[in-house]
């Protein structure tokens, strides 16, 4: 298990500034993420408000 610091500059620009634990493909699927090699593209579908 590894920690990813989302929001820091990298080959991919993230607009998120929180950390989360990436536990595996199943974890990524739950977040609607796409894992490609060492790159992690995440599309969060969470919204704020009612």
Any overview of this molecule?
This protein starts with a strand and ends in an 8-residue tail after the last strand. The strands form 2 sheets. A two-stranded antiparallel ribbon has the order 1-2. Strands 3-4 form a two-stranded antiparallel ribbon. The chain is globular. With 50 residues, it is mainly β. It has one domain. The longest helix is centred in the middle third of the chain and has 6 residues. The C terminus is likely disordered. It contains 1 helix and 4 strands, in the order ββαββ.
Topology record:
Layout: E1 2-5, E2 19-22, H1 25-30, E3 33-36, E4 39-42
Antiparallel strand pairs: 1-2, 3-4
Supply the number of helical segments: 1
Number of domains: 1
Secondary structure category: mainly beta
Largest sheet features:
2 strands, antiparallel
H/E element order: EEHEE
Kindly provide the radius of gyration, computed on alpha-carbon positions and rounded to a whole number of angstroms: 11 Å
List low-confidence stretches: 8-23, 32-50
**Beginning-to-end CA distance, first to last residue:** 33 Å
Q: Quick check: average pLDDT?
A: 47
In terms of DSSP E residues, the strand content is 25-35%
Cα shape: globular
| Spatial strand sequence of the major β-sheet | 1-2
List keywords for this structure.
two-stranded antiparallel ribbon, two-stranded antiparallel sheet, 50 residues, disordered C terminus, mainly beta, 1 helix
Outline of the structure:
This protein is mainly β and 50 residues long.
């Amino acid at each position: 298990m590894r920690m990813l610091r989302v929001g820091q500059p990298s080959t991919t620009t993230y607009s998120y500034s929180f950390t989360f634990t990436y536990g595996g493909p199943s974890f990524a699927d739950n977040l609607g993420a796409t894992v490609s090699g060492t790159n992690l593209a995440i599309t969060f579908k969470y919204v704020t408000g009612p």
